[in-house]
């Protein structure tokens, strides 16, 4: 590939991107795979009269071996990444320098030479489109090139056209298709959404699409902190009914991905929103039936969590999620009701603990983990509950916990010491 | 706003506290004995230094070229590793410093490389590199600190750059930068602390914004920022220590979040946090040392995220820094909050 001319590579790349605006996936392909897929590839050039001759020609021409595009999927040969990146970067940096110079002239109104200034200003639209083209090419090769994302923000924030913002979401989606963890691509989305939110009031559709995208990416790239963080960020824009919808829609996915802690954190965030809503607090007094709705929601979540814990043995995320649910349940619901609700609840948790600590004879690692998580779950609750309740649980299952800890996780016995000290019994 | 004198007093107390906490965290019985070293194999210090020094020569390789937008972070990781290994003198200071200064933007902030836009993350790396060479004075300190200070928002949080993304990482980076420049009085420290505390979760950990998932990297940032401002009393140390010590997996390595694989970089984030909150005795340190040493490429130098993976400068730094926190023999001590060698920090704050 040494004789490949970098600038014609870049032109070809940009030509492909322009001629198929529906490209929704980019990937890098090793030349060995490339030969195989190229055989069936559709020609990117204007149709030729002799297809046989054409395919022979592509083998000879390195540029034709650089890209592969079909069904709106774009493959880039790993062999051309380096020269293509260099060409895109130089083109971008060059236009950027000129663009910023012109913008400076404009904002500082240095009217020493009026002709020069107006000449420079007339070149602005051309420079802007160069910047947009080159930064797009660059970001499809180097996803976290911050300066390239920034100058796109610079250019479009000066325009009134809201559709430009939707184009930015599309580019960010394309970048995320090859680099789902790209921090800058996710940041760019949030900036764009904030700009859209400032221009139009109905974000319903945008939020739905964003949540859908985060879900799709989380599917391919497990435990992706940035994708789930983006989804959590959307929660603050959601209405109460959207929160409930998300909880329901996400449930099946969570049940199939029980090791994805980020997904359970997302549920934590949604469940917490049902508590923070000032409406909820207001309703508890004024509209008891509305409050019952939340009570029911939390109760169902606890039941579901228990089902998962019993079905999927030894999953840390499930137990951590239960720590959160139980503590909030006690604080926000059980404690507020008359009768002995907290004790009833805690008794049922101790049953869960006991049923989770029986390890079958042919010891499986997962069952040992389950026993450890069950023991640390109860110890954690003792630590987080008030002294009186903590002491009560300790009296009920203290010896059993000690036994489990010394059997499956003796290295965690200091946590038991800590818990005992907390509730005042050495 | 904060009273300047009050801040200075707070600073002095903090440094004293720091000295004390290091003494407390490493009582003699926790030191790793020579006998363990024989069992665990050794740190290939020479090879790691050589590996770092050759990266510079490979800057035209495709891997380096694709990372050029954050080269200044890479320089900080590499140079700090060399300093911990006692090999910083092998580097040509002048070249590094003039290159670092060429990354400065007219706003006062630094870009990740020449001609790149400024960001607070790169600004801290620039300050840290200069600190390593005892050359902070080449900076226009007023200008740099003003750049960082303007990134503070009304609620006390920090944006990473003028485009406004907010993250507790940026809070740490801003507070650390200003502390190293002795310009903390330029911002509202009380509000900055309040924002960080608002990112605390029910599990005791911290996320990047209020309500975001706890993550060891974010926890390091929040705890580091609270340590730097002398505000660790906002933390339930037992609860956070609980979450952090649950990051140690069977192999001895640490993960950054529940259910994730262990990774050498978390040796730094989890470990430094545990040290700052005085709970490092809650993990098995010998097993962690063994895990890090297992991730070395003993022949060609460098450390990877997990045993048998490809090495890189990022994990080499975190591996060596982690071993330094574990008081591995022959390594310079590193400060858990500032992420710079202790002698560099002492030079800044005690002189
Ligand atoms: Zn890592």
UniProtKB/TrEMBL annotation, chain A:
Cross-referenced InterPro entries: Prenyl_trans_a (IPR002088)
Cellular component per GO, a single term: CAAX-protein geranylgeranyltransferase complex
PROSITE patterns in the cross-refs: PFTA (PS51147)
Domain of life per record: Eukaryota
Signal peptide: none
Sorted UniProt keywords: Prenyltransferase, Repeat, Transferase
An annotated Gene Ontology molecular function: protein farnesyltransferase activity
Any one Pfam family match given in the protein's UniProt record, by short name: PPTA
UniProt similarity note: Belongs to the protein prenyltransferase subunit alpha family.
This protein's name: Uncharacterized protein
Annotated organism of origin: Tagetes erecta (African marigold)
From TrEMBL, chain B:
SUPFAM superfamilies given in the database record: Terpenoid cyclases/Protein prenyltransferases
Keyword field contains Transport: no
CDD domains xref list: GGTase-II
Cofactor section: Zn(2+)
Domain Prenyltransferase alpha-alpha toroid, first and last residues per copy: 43-339
First-level EC class: transferase
One Gene Ontology MF term: Rab geranylgeranyltransferase activity
InterPro entries assigned to the protein according to its UniProt record, in alphabetical order: PGGT1B-like (IPR045089), Prenyltrans (IPR001330), Ptb1 (IPR026873), Terpenoid_cyclase/PrenylTrfase (IPR008930)
Reaction(s) this enzyme catalyzes, per UniProt: geranylgeranyl diphosphate + L-cysteinyl-[protein] = S-geranylgeranyl-L-cysteinyl-[protein] + diphosphate
One GO CC term, this protein: Rab-protein geranylgeranyltransferase complex
Endpoints of the signal sequence: none
GO annotation, biological process: gametophyte development; root development
Lipid metabolism among keywords: no
Record's cofactor remark: Binds 1 zinc ion per subunit.
Coiled-coil portions: none
Record Pfam families: Prenyltrans
Keywords linked to the UniProt accession: Metal-binding, Prenyltransferase, Repeat, Transferase, Zinc
E.C. number: 2.5.1.60
Biological role: Required for male fertility and root tip growth. Catalyzes the transfer of a geranylgeranyl moiety from geranylgeranyl diphosphate to both cysteines of proteins with the C-terminal sequence -XXCC, -XCXC and -CCXX.
Subunit structure of this chain's protein: Heterotrimer composed of the alpha subunit RGTA, the beta subunit RGTB and REP; within this trimer, RGTA and RGTB form the catalytic component, while REP mediates peptide substrate binding.
Family: Belongs to the protein prenyltransferase subunit beta family.
Listed name of the protein: Geranylgeranyl transferase type-2 subunit beta
Organism of this sequence: Tagetes erecta
């Amino acid at each position: 590939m040494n004789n490949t001319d970098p600038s014609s590579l870049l032109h070809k790349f940009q030509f492909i991107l322009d001629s198929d605006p529906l490209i929704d996936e980019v990937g890098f392909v090793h030349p060995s795979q490339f030969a195989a897929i190229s055989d069936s590839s559709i020609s990117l050039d204007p149709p030729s009269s002799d297809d046989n001759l054409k395919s022979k020609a592509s083998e000879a021409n390195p540029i034709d071996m650089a890209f592969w595009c079909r069904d709106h999927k774009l493959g880039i040969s790993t062999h051309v990444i380096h020269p293509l990146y260099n060409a895109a970067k130089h083109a971008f940096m060059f236009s950027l320098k000129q663009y910023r110079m012109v913008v400076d002239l404009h904002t500082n109104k240095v009217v020493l030479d009026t002709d020069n200034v107006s000449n420079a200003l007339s070149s602005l639209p051309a420079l802007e489109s160069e910047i947009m083209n080159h930064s797009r090419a660059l970001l499809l090769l180097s996803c976290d090139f911050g300066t390239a994302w920034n100058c796109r923000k610079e250019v479009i924030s000066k325009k009134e056209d809201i559709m430009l913002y939707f184009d930015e979401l599309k580019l960010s989606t394309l970048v995320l298709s090859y680099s789902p963890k790209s921090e800058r691509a996710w940041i760019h989305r949030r900036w764009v959404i904030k700009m859209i939110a400032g221009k139009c009031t109905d974000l319903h559709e945008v939020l739905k699409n964003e949540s859908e995208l985060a879900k799709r990416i989380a599917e391919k790239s497990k435990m992706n902190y940035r994708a789930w963080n983006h989804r959590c960020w959307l929660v603050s824009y959601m209405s109460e009914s959207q929160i409930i919808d998300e909880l329901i829609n996400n449930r099946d996915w969570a049940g199939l991905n029980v090791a994805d802690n980020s997904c359970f954190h997302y549920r934590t965030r949604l469940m917490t929103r049902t508590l923070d809503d000032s409406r909820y607090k207001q309703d508890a007094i004024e509209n008891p039936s509305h409050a019952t709705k939340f009570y029911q929601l939390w109760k169902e979540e606890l039941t579901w969590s228990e089902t998962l814990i019993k079905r999927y043995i030894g999953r840390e995320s499930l137990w951590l999620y239960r720590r959160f649910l139980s503590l909030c349940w006690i604080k926000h619901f059980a404690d507020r009701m008359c009768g002995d609700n907290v004790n009833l609840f805690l008794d049922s948790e101790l049953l869960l603990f006991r049923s989770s600590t029986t390890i079958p004879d042919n010891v499986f690692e997962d069952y040992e983990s389950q026993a450890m998580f069950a023991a640390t779950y109860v110890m954690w609750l003792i630590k987080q509950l008030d002294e009186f309740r903590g002491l009560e649980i300790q009296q009920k299952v203290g010896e059993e916990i000690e036994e489990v800890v010394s059997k499956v996780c003796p290295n965690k016995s200091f946590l038991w010491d800590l818990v005992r000290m907390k509730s005042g019994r050495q | 706003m904060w009273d300047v004198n009050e801040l200075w007093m707070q600073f002095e107390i903090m440094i004293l506290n720091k000295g004390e906490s290091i003494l407390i965290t490493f009582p003699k019985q926790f030191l790793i004995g020579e006998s363990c070293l024989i069992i665990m194999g050794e740190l290939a210090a020479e090879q790691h230094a050589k590996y770092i020094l050759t990266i510079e020569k490979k800057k035209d390789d495709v891997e380096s070229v694709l990372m050029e937008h954050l080269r200044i972070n890479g320089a900080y990781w590499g140079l700090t590793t060399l300093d911990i290994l006692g090999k910083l003198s092998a580097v040509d200071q002048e070249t590094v410093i003039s290159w670092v200064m060429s990354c400065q933007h007219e706003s006062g902030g630094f870009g990740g490389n020449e001609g790149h836009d400024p960001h607070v993350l790169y600004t801290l790396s620039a300050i840290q590199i200069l600190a390593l060479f005892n050359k902070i004075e080449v900076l226009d300190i007023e200008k740099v600190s003003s750049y960082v200070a303007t990134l503070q928002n009304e609620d006390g949080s920090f944006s990473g750059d003028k485009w406004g993304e907010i993250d507790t990482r940026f809070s740490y980076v801003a507070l650390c930068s200003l502390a190293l420049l002795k310009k903390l009085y330029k911002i509202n420290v009380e509000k900055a602390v309040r924002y960080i505390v608002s990112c605390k979760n029910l599990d005791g950990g911290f996320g990047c914004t209020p309500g975001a998932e706890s993550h060891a990297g974010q926890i390091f940032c929040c705890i580091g920022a609270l340590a730097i401002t002398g505000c660790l009393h906002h933390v339930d140390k037992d609860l956070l220590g609980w979450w952090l010590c649950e990051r140690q997996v069977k192999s001895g390595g640490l993960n950054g979040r529940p259910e994730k694989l262990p990774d050498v970089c978390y040796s730094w984030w989890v470990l430094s946090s545990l040290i700052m909150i005085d709970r490092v005795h809650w993990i098995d340190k010998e097993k962690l040392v063994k895990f890090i040493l297992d991730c070395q490429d003993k022949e060609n130098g460098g450390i990877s995220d997990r045993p048998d993976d490809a090495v890189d400068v990022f994990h080499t730094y975190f591996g060596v820094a982690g071993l330094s926190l574990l008081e591995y023999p022959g390594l310079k001590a590193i400060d858990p909050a500032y992420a710079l060698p202790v002698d560099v920090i002492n030079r800044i704050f005690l002189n």
